[in-house]
Amino acid sequence: MKLRSILAAASLAAMATGAQAEGVKVGMITTLSGGGAGLGVDVRDGFMLAVAQSGRDDIEVVIEDDQRKPDVAVQLADKMIQSEKVDVLTGIIWSNLAMAVVPGAVAQGVFYLSPNAGPSPLAGAGCHENYFNVAWQNDNLHEAAGAYANTAGYSNIFILAPNYPAGTDALNGFKRMYEGELSGETYTKLGQTDYAAEIAQIRASGADSVFFFLPGGMGISFLKQYADSGVDLPIIGPAFSFDQGILQAVGAAALGVKNTSQWSKDLDNEANVAFVESFQAEYGRLPSLYASQGFDTANLMISAVEAADVNDKDAFRAALEAADFASTRGDFAFSTNHHPVQDYYVREVIQEGDVFTNKIVGTALTDHADAYVSECAM
Amino acid sequence: MRKEFFLNAALLGVLLAFPLWAWSVDEPYLITLATRAIVFAIAGIGLNFALGFGGLVSLGHAAFFGLGGYVMGVLAFHAQTYTPVMGWPLVINGTKSMPTIWLIAIALSALLAVGIGALSLRTSGVYFIMITLAFAQMLYYFTISWPTYGGEDGLSIYVRNGFPGLNTMDPIQFFAICYAILLIVLAFVFAASRSPFGLALGASRQNEERIQAVGQVPFRLYLTAFAISGAITGLAGALFADLNRFISPTMFSWQTSGEIMIFVILGGVGRVFGPVAGAVLFILLEHTLGGLSEFWHIYLGAILLGVVLFARGGLYGMVAGREVAHD
Amino acid sequence: MSLILFIEQALNGLQYGVMLFLMAAGLTLVFGVMGLINLAHGSLYMIGAFAAAAVAGATGSFLLALVASLVCAAFAGVLVEFFVIRRLYDRDHLDQVLATFALILIFSEGTRWIFGSFPLFLDKPDWLSGTVMLPFGIEYSLYRLWIILVGLLVAAGLFWMIGRTRIGIRIRAGENDREMIAALGVNISLLYTFVFALGAALAGLAGALIGAIQSVQVGMGEPVLILAFVVIVIGGIGSIKGALVGAILVGLTDTLGRSFLPSFFGLFLEPSSAMSIGASLSSMSIYLLMIGVLLFRPKGLFGGI
């Protein structure tokens, strides 16, 4: 029952299964069909690019589509752990899927490297020695936005997010750092497409700025309608709504907007320059935030494979904790709860020729961990 | 009839033999896959009771599936965290015992079905389809924005609930539980469909006036059928939650309602075993097509379309002939 | 809460309702004439938006994009009607639901296969950008006003077509007695294809118009589809007037609920729980509305018989 396996390289260990010391088998569960597929495709492409560049032929990657359904993701994780006998799992995009898969997976002894989702329970009381987050804790980018709002001198901001856990986390994260007043706080419906009512509230609230977290199509709709409404208060948001994949769909409506991110394609370090160039050469498009996270996740794993044998769990874990790889974000380290300690930047949406993209205009937070480290008993 | 009997036997046989084989070659995932098919089959049997026997096209059975799941999730969550579900007016504690959870899931789903049914059955046709959908959507949005049990993130239950004398974490033992429940549900539905109630229900579906003329009240028949239907689907929801050790609002989504309906139609509407065949076929399709291409939904859609257009009566209609008309 | 804000929100509700009407009109027409539940109506909406985005991207003309959305969606409608839908008229609703559910899968993944996984860009033209000042000092988006206008024109056009033209007479006759009008020599199969294509074109137009201020992406049709169903069920299936009234009711309920329920609960609850209860209740409000309507009028407001 081989359903879909992409052999990244012909596995030398193919003749014997099971107790083989060489190489590593990776299971990637990510979203490749339906509306959210763009993110999964980017993570996969970034990850596979790094695997190919490593030149190692002992890394086997099995990729499956979770269809963005938690129950499917759980089934796939069971399959990969029990039947495919993978050593490392990765790939999940959405927090709710991560919450469904990760606790069970790490309890069965595999490593989980998160290339995107970072729900707070997994950073705090639910942290686990085999769980590593290579992207960010969910609150981080919003905290950075809150910090930026202070430096930008905003003192009466209107904040909005969808009414679901990641939305509540986002607003809480923002408020954790933000020191000014709130002129309003609104939760929208998940999947909402029309924001006329919220924009009217913003207009009436007397705010001096707006912070929003509306991932995917919701953000595109909001930005287009906001630009059309005549309300011209400055907006800030996390990078998700200003990422390479969707920026072209927002167009000029996003120009000049400040957003916070741990990565940007113009970050000037050797690893990133090489990554951006090779990604473009390989796939013919600019890399996105998600692609960079997939790429970093793979490189972290490769660095651990080079340092230790995956069957020696303690050594492999120590090698992961060392995070001895050239991250596209520059400095990267793990905090005690296995979540990143990294810098968060402020980017501005600009136009380069026909392409909308971001450039870094400042740093919001330096060597920032997350608010849940102390709750993690590890 | 004869062909249908053999098909039923073969289906049950394969459903039992396949996991046993998987167990012997140590492929626990395949056992889980078979368990999933069985749980889906039970959900489909539930819908089929309303849809096939009563002619009630409900596009809101996710409401019961989800409720069953949340019964399991909420009870197990409170047992896991040692907090009472309710402290007032009477103290209710959580539980990790499967039979208790099942009973509560069945009872609450039946109750919800009576409530939804009593309101929805005032309408018919497309209005009925849409009002059932509306109820499920309400529950969907409610669970998403209800933070206590995880909202959209859902809720993980780390250890499967217990069943006296069995180790439920062992895939084959959990499979056995689900298989036994499938048999019980099938037997119940088979008996019910041949009981005076079942016959009156079928007659009422075909001609309401005649059934009124013999002194039956169609509304009561439909409501009873809807309640039984909801209860069975709710039970399936509780099992599904235990299978994944996870619940989320997705269980309430309209796609879930659509999928349950697909099991019924793929297998054959109004046949006792239809949903079993449908669920098995669906799982099979999902796992073979998923390997073909990133765009496998296209093939799935084409196959479903083919079934509707050219294989009326689903799998059973194709193989066993059109002995049971569903219209 | 000021009166001005209330008026502005009511206008937003009206405008949202008109957007829903564009989508619901085709749906209710197809159901009224052919008795067909078409879940794939949302896919036609998506096709319209994608066609408009592609053409606008290539030519830069918004009007051409609108034309493209009408043509492509109508063409897709004709194809689907000819190969699939036509076989479903005599089937029960169940088969129709499943077949059109299958069409959603095919259309969604097919679109993703052609256009990729990323959202497309579609913007309103410059001559419709910006805002206008309305009485009472309400600053309102010109494009949204324009959508209200187009929606009302479409409604008027449909009323005129159904009520005053020969084809409208046939459509009404087809709703009442399809055997009879076939016997009278009307090519019923052609009529059905026409009605389906018209419904599809309306969905496509809605997709293009709305796509300009929303996100053009795979799966954009489904949420709107469910709303459109709520609309036509409230209005009474088959009734254009019902669709218009239903759409505006839904638009107003949703918009006003969203904007005022949280502050209403804030009057007697602490802010954070008022916020979340208000938000939850407002996301359920239109379904509550629909259930309420159906309890008193099981066939919708204008469901007639």
Description:
Chain B: It is found in: Cell membrane. Chain B: The chain crosses the membrane at residues 5-23, 29-50, 62-80, 100-119, 126-144, 172-192, 219-240, 260-285, 297-319. The complex is a heterotrimer of chains A (378), B (327) and C (305). Chain A has 378 residues and is α/β, with parallel strands linked by helices. Chain A is built from twelve helices and 13 strands. The longest helix of chain A is centred in the last third of the chain and has 19 residues, at 289-307. Chain A is globular and about 65 Å long. Chain B has 327 residues and is mostly helical. Chain B is 71% helix and 3% strand. Chain B has helices at 2-24, 28-53, 62-81, 98-120, 125-144, 171-194, 196-206, 208-213, 218-244, 254-267, 274-289, 296-310, 314-320; strands at 84-86, 92-93, 155-156, 246-247. In chain B, helix 2 (28-53) packs parallel to helix 6 (171-194) and helix 6 (171-194) packs across helix 7. The radius of gyration of chain B is 19 Å and the shape is globular. With 305 residues, chain C is mainly α. Chain C has a single domain, classed as ABC transporter involved in vitamin B12 uptake, BtuC, CATH 1.10.3470. Chain C is globular, with a radius of gyration of 20 Å.
* N→C terminal distance of chain A: 38 Å
Strand order of the biggest β-sheet of chain C: 1-2
% residues in beta strands of chain C = under 5%
Largest sheet of chain C: 2 strands, antiparallel
Keywords (chain A): Amino-acid transport, Signal, Transport
Domain Leucine-binding protein (chain A): 24-353
Pfam families (chain A): Peripla_BP_6
Organism (chain A): Sedimentitalea nanhaiensis
Lay out the secondary structure.
The complex is a heterotrimer of chains A (378), B (327) and C (305).
Chain A (H helix, E strand, L loop, with lengths): L23 E7 L6 H18 L4 E7 L4 H13 L5 E3 L4 H13 L3 E4 L5 H4 L7 E3 L6 H12 L4 E7 L2 H13 L3 E8 L7 H10 L3 E4 L4 H12 L6 E4 L5 H7 L7 E4 L8 H14 L5 H19 L5 H10 L10 E2 L5 E13 L2 E14 L10
Parallel strand pairs in A: 1-2, 1-3, 3-4, 4-5, 6-7, 6-8, 8-9, 9-10
Antiparallel strand pairs in A: 10-12, 11-12, 12-13
Helix pairs in contact in A: 1-11, 2-3, 5-6, 8-9, 11-12
Chain B lengths: L1 H23 L3 H26 L8 H20 L2 E3 L5 E2 L4 H23 L4 H20 L10 E2 L14 H24 L1 H11 L1 H6 L4 H27 L1 E2 L6 H14 L6 H16 L6 H15 L3 H7 L7
Antiparallel strand pairs in B: 1-2, 3-4
Chain C lengths: L2 H32 L6 H19 L2 H22 L9 H23 L15 E4 L3 E4 H23 L1 H11 L1 H6 L4 H24 L9 H15 L4 H26 L5 H26 L9
Antiparallel strand pairs in C: 1-2
